[in-house]
C-alpha cells in the first residue's frame, strides 16, 4: 500500500469504528432508557398506599402520573393455625401470611416505613425485589422490636416482585412466613379482567411430622435439608378452600398474581382443568400464551390469566404432586354458572367393561378334556375348579357377587327357582335387567363355551354351596336345554 | 478515698442478690470475623440477669436514672415503660429480669457496683457452654426464640447451663459492652439474605445468628421489652 492508500484505509477504519461504537452506545442507552426516564419522572402529590391481605389485590391504579406512595408495613409475630389442630408462630408482614399486597405505579417514589411491633421478640428488615439498591432495602431497614425504619426508593422498573425479610438466619425468617408481593404496575396497565387474586406458595418446616397436633416450632435441620412438612398456598393448609375458595362466574376472566416465597422450593404452578391464556413470565414483561404449567422460582413470581368456560371447582396446585396430595399445596377456584356440555360433557355413561369386549361374546372355557364325574360328590369337586376359573371373577369366591354389578349366587332366588333357566343363562349368556334377592341388576353375562360335563359340574357345585337348594345338574340336562349365544 | 470506694463497691457486689459464678479461662471460636481461636481470661459473671428488684435498689441510690430524670440521649421514650418513679407494676414479678433499659443505664448499673457489662465474646463464651451446644439444645433455644414474648416475664433462676449460669436463653435478650462491633462485612454491619452467612463460623447455628442479628439491630439508647442484662467482674489479682 502506498501512503495515500494507507491514509484512505485508516479513514475508512475510523469511520467504521465510529459507527460501531455509536450503535453500541445507542443500544446500551436504550436498555437504561426506561429506568432513566422513570428516575427523572416528576412526582405529583402523595397518597397513602392501599394494602390488602391475600387473596385480595388493591384496585388497579388509574392515575397517569407518578406520585409519592407512603407505605406503613407492620411486622407482627402471631400464633395461627397451619393445619387442622396444628398451630404455628408466624412472623408476618401485616398480621398474615403472605404479607400485604403492595401496589404502586412505575415511576412512583415510595416512602417505606417498616414498623416492628414492640411485643415482637426478633429484629426484622425487608428486601423488596422492586428496589434497586443495597439489599433491596435490607441494608437500611434492620429494625429492633418497638422501632421503625424509614427509607425511600424510586420504582424504576415495572413487574410483579417478591419482598421478604432478610435478617439472618434468613431461612428461618422466610420459613416463618415473612414474604409477600409488591406489584409495580406498568405505565401501560394490563387489560382489565373481572377478577384479580393474590396467591403465594411457601413451605413450613415443623419439628413434628405433617399432621402432628399442637404448637409446632420451626425445625432448623429440616429447613437446611430442604425437607418441609407442609407446602401450602397463603400460609396454611386449606387457606383457599371451602368457604375461602376463590370465586368467578363462568365466562369471566381471572388474573392471578402468583408468588413463591420459598424459602427453598420452586413451584410448578398449574390449575387443574384450566389452561393459562397468558403468562407474564417471571412476573416480567414477556408474555407466553396457552400454557398448562408454569415454573415459579422461590423469590420469583408469575402473572397468569385465563377466561373460564365451564362451571366447576378448579384446583390450584404445585404439580410436584406429593406436595399437593400430602403436604397441602392445594387451593380452589369455584366457577359458578350453567354447564356447557359441548366444551365438557361430564360423564355420559357408565358401562360394564369386560376384557373380551362390551357385547355378549362367547367366553372360552378350559380346553382340556373335563374329567367324568362318578357321582354327585365328584361333580361338586370338579365343579369347584370350573367355578374358580370362570365364575369367581364376577360372582366372587363367596358367591356374594358385587352389589349393583354382579348378582349373588348364594341363597339366590333366581338360581333356586328354575334350574332350566340357569342352564339357558350359562350357555346362552344374559343381558338386561334381572332381579335377584330383591335387588335389580342390569349387566352383561357372557355365554360360556364349556362342555356339558363342565357346566353340569359347576352348576352342581353352585347348587350345593352357600345355602342353595342342593340340586344336582346332569350333563344330559345341560345338553337338552342348551341355547345359542344371544347377539 | 479510692480504696474506700472500692471497698464499698466490693461490699455491694457481695450482696445476695448479685450472686456471681467464676468462669474458668479457656478458648473459643467467635462466630464472626476472626475465625481463629480466641483466649478468654477467667472472670466472674452474674448467675442471674439483673432483676426488677435489683434495679429498683439502684434507682433509689441513683435518682438521675429515674424515668423522669434521665437525660434524653441516654434512653428512648420506652425507658422503664410501666414503671412509676422507682416502682414497677405489682403485676410484674420482682425477681423477673429488668427490661426496657438502655445500654447506658445497664452500663451505669454495673459500674455502680464495681462491675461492667460483659463483652460479646465473654457472653458468647459462657453461652457456648464448653461446646455443649448439641443440636437438641439448639432446637430448645430456637423454640424460645420462635415464640412470642409473654405479657409478664417469669422469675429468674431457670435453665442453668454446665457453668451453673442461669437464664442465658429462654427469658430475655441481654446487652453486651461491645454489641455494635459484633458484625462486620465491608464496613456494612447489616446481615441480610444469603450474605449473612459470609464469614460465619457455622452457618447452621441459627441460634447464634439470631443473637448476632438482634445485637446488630440495636443502638445504645434503645429500650426493648425483652432486652435485659447482667454484669461481669474481673478476677482480682
Helix content of chain A: 10-25%
- Series of H and E elements of chain B: HEEEEHEEHHHEHEE
Name the CATH homologous superfamily of chain B. Answer: paralog of FGE (formylglycine-generating enzyme)
Number of strands of chain A: 26
Q: What average pLDDT do the residues of chain A reach?
A: 91
Greatest interface by residues involved: A-B, 38 and 35 residues
Biggest sheet features of chain B: 3 strands, antiparallel
Label the overall shape of chain A: elongated
Distance between the termini of chain A: 100 Å
Low-confidence stretches of chain A: none
Number of helices of chain B: 6
Helix content of chain B: 25-40%
**How would you state the average pLDDT of chain B, rounded?**
83
Strand order of the largest sheet of chain B: 1-4-9
CATH class of chain B: Alpha Beta
Radius of gyration of chain B from CA coordinates: 18 Å
Briefly note the structural class of the backbone of chain A. alpha/beta
Weakly predicted, low-confidence segments of chain B:
11-17, 184-189
How many strand segments of chain B?
A: 9
Largest sheet of chain A: 6 strands, mixed
**What's the number of structural domains of chain B?**
1
Task: Provide a concise account of the structure shown.
The complex is a heterodimer of chains A (487) and B (237). With 487 residues, chain A is an alpha/beta fold.
Amino acid at each position: 500500500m502506498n501512503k495515500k492508500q494507507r491514509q484512505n484505509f485508516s479513514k475508512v477504519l475510523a469511520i467504521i469504528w465510529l459507527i460501531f461504537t455509536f450503535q453500541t452506545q445507542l443500544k446500551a442507552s436504550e436498555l437504561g432508557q426506561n429506568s432513566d426516564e422513570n428516575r427523572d419522572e416528576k412526582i405529583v402529590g402523595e397518597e397513602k398506599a392501599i394494602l390488602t391481605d391475600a387473596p385480595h389485590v388493591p384496585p388497579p391504579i388509574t392515575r397517569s402520573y407518578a406520585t409519592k406512595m407512603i407505605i406503613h408495613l407492620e411486622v407482627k409475630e402471631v400464633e395461627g393455625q397451619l393445619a387442622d389442630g396444628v398451630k404455628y408462630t408466624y412472623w408476618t408482614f401485616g398480621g398474615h401470611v403472605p404479607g400485604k399486597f403492595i401496589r404502586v405505579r412505575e415511576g412512583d417514589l415510595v416512602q417505606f416505613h417498616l414498623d416492628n411491633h414492640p411485643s415482637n421478640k426478633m429484629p426484622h428488615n425487608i428486601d423488596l425485589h422492586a428496589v434497586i439498591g443495597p439489599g433491596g432495602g435490607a441494608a437500611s431497614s434492620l429494625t429492633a422490636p418497638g422501632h421503625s425504619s424509614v427509607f425511600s426508593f424510586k420504582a424504576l422498573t415495572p413487574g410483579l416482585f417478591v419482598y421478604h425479610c432478610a435478617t439472618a438466619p434468613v431461612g428461618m425468617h422466610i420459613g416463618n412466613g415473612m414474604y409477600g408481593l409488591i406489584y409495580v404496575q406498568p405505565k401501560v396497565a394490563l387489560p382489565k379482567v373481572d377478577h384479580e387474586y393474590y396467591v403465594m406458595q411457601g413451605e413450613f418446616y415443623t419439628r413434628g411430622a405433617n399432621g402432628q397436633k399442637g404448637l409446632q416450632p420451626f425445625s432448623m435441620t429440616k429447613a437446611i435439608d430442604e425437607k418441609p412438612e407442609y407446602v401450602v398456598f397463603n400460609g396454611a393448609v386449606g387457606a383457599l378452600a371451602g368457604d375461602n375458595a376463590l370465586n368467578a362466574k363462568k365466562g369471566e376472566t381471572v388474573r392471578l398474581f402468583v408468588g413463591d416465597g420459598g424459602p427453598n422450593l420452586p413451584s410448578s404452578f398449574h390449575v387443574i382443568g384450566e389452561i393459562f391464556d397468558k403468562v407474564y413470565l417471571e412476573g416480567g414483561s414477556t408474555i407466553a400464551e396457552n400454557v398448562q404449567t408454569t415454573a415459579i422460582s422461590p423469590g420469583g413470581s408469575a402473572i397468569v390469566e385465563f377466561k373460564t368456560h365451564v362451571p366447576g371447582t378448579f384446583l390450584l396446585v404445585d404439580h410436584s404432586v406429593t406436595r399437593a396430595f400430602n403436604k397441602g399445596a392445594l387451593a380452589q377456584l369455584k366457577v359458578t354458572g350453567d354447564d356447557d356440555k359441548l366444551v365438557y360433557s361430564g360423564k355420559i355413561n357408565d358401562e360394564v367393561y369386560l376384557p373380551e369386549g362390551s357385547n355378549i361374546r362367547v367366553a372360552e372355557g378350559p380346553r382340556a378334556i373335563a374329567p367324568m364325574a362318578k357321582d354327585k360328590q365328584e361333580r361338586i369337586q370338579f365343579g369347584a375348579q370350573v367355578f374358580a376359573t370362570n365364575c369367581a371373577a364376577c360372582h366372587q369366591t363367596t358367591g356374594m357377587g358385587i352389589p349393583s354389578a354382579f348378582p349373588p349366587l348364594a341363597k339366590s332366588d333366581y338360581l333356586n327357582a328354575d334350574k332350566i333357566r340357569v342352564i339357558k343363562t350359562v350357555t346362552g349368556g344374559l343381558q338386561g335387567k334381572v332381579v335377584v334377592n330383591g335387588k335389580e341388576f342390569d349387566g352383561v353375562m357372557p355365554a360360556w363355551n364349556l362342555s356339558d360335563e363342565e357346566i353340569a359340574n359347576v352348576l352342581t357345585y353352585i347348587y350345593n354351596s352357600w345355602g342353595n337348594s342342593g340340586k344336582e345338574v346332569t350333563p344330559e340336562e345341560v345338553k337338552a336345554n342348551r341355547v345359542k349365544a344371544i347377539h | 478515698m479510692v480504696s474506700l470506694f472500692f471497698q464499698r463497691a466490693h461490699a455491694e457486689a457481695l450482696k445476695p442478690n448479685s450472686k456471681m459464678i467464676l468462669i474458668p479461662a479457656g478458648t473459643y471460636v467467635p462466630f464472626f470475623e476472626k475465625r481463629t481461636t480466641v483466649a478468654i481470661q477467667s472472670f466472674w459473671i452474674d448467675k442471674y440477669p439483673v432483676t426488677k428488684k435489683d434495679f429498683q435498689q439502684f434507682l433509689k441510690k441513683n435518682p438521675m436514672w429515674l424515668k423522669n430524670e434521665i437525660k434524653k440521649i441516654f434512653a428512648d421514650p420506652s425507658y422503664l415503660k410501666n414503671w412509676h418513679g422507682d416502682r414497677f407494676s405489682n403485676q410484674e414479678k420482682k425477681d423477673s429480669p429488668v427490661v426496657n433499659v438502655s445500654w447506658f443505664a445497664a452500663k451505669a448499673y454495673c459500674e455502680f457496683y464495681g462491675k461492667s457489662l460483659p463483652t460479646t465474646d465473654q457472653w458468647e463464651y459462657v453461652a457456648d457452654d464448653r461446646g455443649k451446644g448439641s443440636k437438641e439444645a439448639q432446637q430448645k433455644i430456637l423454640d424460645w426464640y420462635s415464640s412470642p414474648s409473654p405479657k409478664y416475664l417469669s422469675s429468674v433462676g431457670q435453665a442453668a447451663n454446665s457453668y451453673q449460669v442461669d437464664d442465658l436463653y429462654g427469658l430475655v435478650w441481654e446487652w453486651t459492652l461491645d454489641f455494635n462491633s459484633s458484625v462486620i462485612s465491608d464496613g456494612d454491619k447489616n446481615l441480610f439474605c444469603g450474605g449473612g452467612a459470609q464469614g460465619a463460623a457455622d452457618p447452621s447455628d441459627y441460634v447464634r445468628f439470631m443473637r448476632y442479628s438482634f445485637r446488630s439491630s440495636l443502638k445504645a439508647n434503645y429500650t426493648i421489652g425483652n432486652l435485659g442484662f447482667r454484669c461481669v467482674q474481673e478476677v482480682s489479682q
